[in-house]
């Protein structure tokens, strides 16, 4: 009987652990020491602060591979505290895993490769329920020259893919899931989380020359296979600054369609934006005045999106032409 | 104090005065408007014509006045004007946006035919002499920003000619999550009672139609629970691994 050398066996286990943690080989870029079990790791992702702990190093390493550049020494204000717990001795092998945050119901994930997408979603859910200082729209948001573009839409409308396309064209990134509006200043705030791309968009993103973190296939139940795009992999200065909304574009992807951009009235846009508000119940009667003021100086459109390059060409030419016409 | 009953002396046959509610949150945008009704949780959008009719519901105009103003402009005939005004008023009443409900007030307007211009002008002058103590005149609460200004014929026709006005949606409405008053759904995203249908954005189970019993809010999207009906594709099912079989997630 062959007796395994304990040192070799330990190294083998560690190697297997890193294989499951996509991007963990890069964690030397982000920290001096490996993730210690159950020590909180603090991140400041734009205006959203997250504190993550886990009894399994690989989950923290995965999160670090996307947000290592956001790492902070201490927790920021309004920090969302999340813990990923495993119930087995060898958590990198199998679940279930529990996502836990104080004051909310625990969320169970069955499989290891479902943890990161659900962790992202769990943090989003905490934002919706706790960040009452912002009006939260279900929209992608970008910035160009101090002007914000928001792309509100339901899942599958093509927001994230369109965002990735525009980021390669010098637009700056605010968020791919939220438009966080400060109701006092009407400025869209940055929350530059990793873009979550669904499987049909993988070849499109590959053609853009962008690197998706998908060494392991992530699954996100309703959305199927997903992968993450670290916005800093587009360029180092990709994160935008808080900006007033200049354009509101409602995208709807249709395979093979000819891209078209149809103007909307501002009342149509404000009405549709209210529909896409995650935390309407918090703001209620304040929503309509704020959204009316958001769109009052904005150009509003409905976009039928087809081929990504053609769609981005159309969007840029129309939006920037309208902006220069107004400026002139 | 102006009321919504008939006016004038014996022999007069006037359509009732209309008065809008004054507790709505109202924002005008480029001649159209968005309103929030705190009582029902509904968010409405008015096009230009609807807004103009709404503005005319200030306690000093009747439906016949409004229709008359439309025809005076010359590009819309009496029948179309009647139909437009009747349609708008009916919808405003259906959405409970007017102060009082006078049964049949907006209908039958066109059966009488074109009104006698001289008689109506005299009646209008008489009504304007009535003491303005009604809600809806310049004593509006701060929550309703809609000004009680005179009816403008040009504003009435900003939506287009008669046929276009008849074809356009009068009021677009959705019910915000958390306020489940019964009402019509404005699009496929919303079911009866304003809940979100499958595949649309949500924050909690209660946002979804039959949330918690047939559907659930999972990852900010309404989905169909295991062994429940309402799916059209596998991705509509909450449980990964479920397939949508004849509308049921199995």
Task: Give structural notes.
The complex is a heterodimer of chains A (328) and B (250). With 328 residues, chain A is of the alpha+beta class. Chain A has helices at 6-20, 57-67, 115-130, 159-167, 202-207, 266-275, 280-283, 287-295, 308-327; strands spanning 41-45, 48-54, 71-72, 80-86, 97-100, 107-109, 135-144, 147-152, 172-175, 178-181, 187-189, 195-198, 212-219, 225-229, 243-253, 260-263, 299-305. Residues 1-36 of chain A have low confidence and may be disordered. Chain B is 23% helix and 16% strand. In chain B, the strands form 4 sheets. In chain B, strands 2-3-4-6 form a 4-stranded antiparallel β-sheet. Chain B is elongated. The relative contact order of chain B is 0.15. The model of chain B is unreliable at 1-14, 101-105, 117-151 and 178-193 (pLDDT under 50). The chains are: A alpha+beta (328), B alpha+beta (250). Chain A binds chain B through residues 118, 121, 124-125, 128-129, 138, 154-156, 219-224, 265-268, 270-271, 274-281, 284-285, 287-289, 291-292, 295-296, and chain B through 25-27, 29-30, 32-36, 38, 41, 43, 45-47, 143, 172, 174, 176-178, 189, 199-201, 203, 218-221, 223, 235-240.
Q: Return Rg of chain B in Å.
A: 22 Å
Order of helices and strands of chain A: HEEHEEEEHEEHEEEEHEEEEHHHEH
Task: Calculate the terminal CA-CA distance of chain A, rounded to whole Å.
Answer: 84 Å
Strand order of the largest sheet of chain A: 3-1-2-4-5-6
DSSP strand content of chain A: 25-35%
Order of helices and strands of chain B: EEEEHEHHHHHEEEEE
Main β-sheet description of chain B: 4 strands, antiparallel
* β-sheet strand percentage of chain B: 15-25%
Indicate the structural class of chain B: alpha+beta
Distance linking N and C termini of chain B: 64 Å
Helix segment count of chain B? 6
SS-based structural class of chain A? Answer: alpha+beta
Low-confidence stretches of chain B are 1-14, 101-105, 117-151, 178-193
Q: What is the residue-averaged pLDDT of chain B?
A: 68
Q: What is the total tally of β strands of chain B?
A: 10
């Amino acid at each position: 009987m062959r007796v395994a050398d304990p040192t070799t066996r330990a190294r083998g286990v560690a190697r297997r652990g890193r294989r499951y943690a996509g991007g963990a080989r890069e964690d030397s870029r982000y920290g001096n020491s490996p993730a210690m079990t159950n020590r909180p790791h603090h991140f400041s992702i734009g205006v959203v602060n997250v504190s993550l702990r886990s009894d399994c190093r690989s989950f923290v390493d995965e999160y670090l591979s996307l947000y290592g550049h956001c790492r902070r020494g201490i927790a920021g204000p309004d920090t969302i505290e999340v813990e990923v717990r495993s119930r087995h001795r060898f958590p990198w092998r199998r679940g279930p895993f529990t996502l836990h945050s104080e004051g909310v119901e625990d969320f169970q994930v069955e499989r290891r490769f479902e943890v990161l997408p659900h962790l992202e979603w769990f943090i989003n859910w905490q934002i919706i329920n706790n960040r009452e200082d912002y009006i939260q729209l279900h929209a992608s948001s970008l910035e160009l020259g101090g002007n914000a573009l928001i792309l509100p839409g339901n899942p599958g409308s093509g927001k994230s893919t369109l965002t990735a396309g525009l980021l390669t064209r010098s637009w700056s990134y605010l968020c791919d899931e939220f438009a966080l509006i400060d109701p006092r200043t009407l400025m869209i705030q940055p929350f530059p989380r990793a873009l979550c791309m669904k499987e049909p968009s993988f070849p499109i993103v590959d053609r853009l020359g962008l690197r998706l973190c998908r060494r392991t296939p992530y699954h996100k139940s309703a959305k199927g296979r997903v992968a993450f795009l670290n916005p800093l992999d587009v360029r180092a200065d990709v994160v935008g600054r808080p900006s007033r909304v200049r354009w509101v574009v409602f995208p709807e992807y249709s395979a093979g369609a000819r891209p078209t951009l149809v103007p909307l009235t501002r009342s149509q846009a404000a009405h549709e934006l209210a529909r896409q508000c995650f935390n309407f119940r918090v703001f209620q009667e304040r929503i309509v005045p704020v959204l009316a003021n958001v769109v009052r100086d904005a150009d509003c459109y409905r976009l039928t999106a087809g081929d990504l390059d053609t769609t981005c060409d159309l969007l840029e030419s129309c939006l920037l032409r309208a902006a220069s016409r107004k400026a002139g | 104090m102006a009321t919504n009953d008939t006016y004038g002396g014996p022999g007069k046959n006037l359509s009732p005065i209309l008065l809008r509610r004054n507790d709505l949150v109202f924002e005008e945008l480029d001649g159209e408007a968005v309103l929030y009704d705190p009582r029902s949780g509904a968010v409405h959008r008015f096009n230009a014509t609807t807004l103009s009719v709404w503005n005319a519901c200030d306690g000093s105009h009747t439906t016949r006045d409004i229709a008359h103003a439309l025809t005076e402009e010359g590009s819309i005939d009496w029948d179309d004007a009647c139909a437009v005004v009747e349609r708008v008023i009916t919808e405003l009443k259906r959405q409970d946006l007017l102060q009082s409900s006078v049964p049949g007030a907006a209908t039958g307007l066109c059966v009488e035919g074109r009104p006698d211009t001289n008689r109506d002008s005299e009646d209008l002058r008489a009504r304007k002499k009535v003491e303005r103590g009604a809600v809806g005149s310049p004593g509006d609460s701060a929550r309703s920003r809609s000004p009680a200004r005179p009816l403008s014929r040009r504003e009435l026709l900003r939506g287009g000619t008669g046929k276009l006005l008849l074809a356009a949606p009068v009021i677009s409405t959705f019910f915000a999550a958390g306020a489940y008053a019964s009402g019509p759904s404005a699009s496929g995203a919303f079911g009866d009672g304003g809940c979100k249908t499958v595949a649309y954005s949500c924050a909690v189970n209660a946002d979804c139609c039959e949330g918690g019993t047939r559907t659930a809010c999972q990852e900010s999207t309404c989905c169909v629970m295991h062994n429940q009906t309402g799916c059209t594709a596998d991705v509509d099912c909450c449980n990964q691994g479920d397939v949508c079989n004849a509308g049921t997630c199995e």
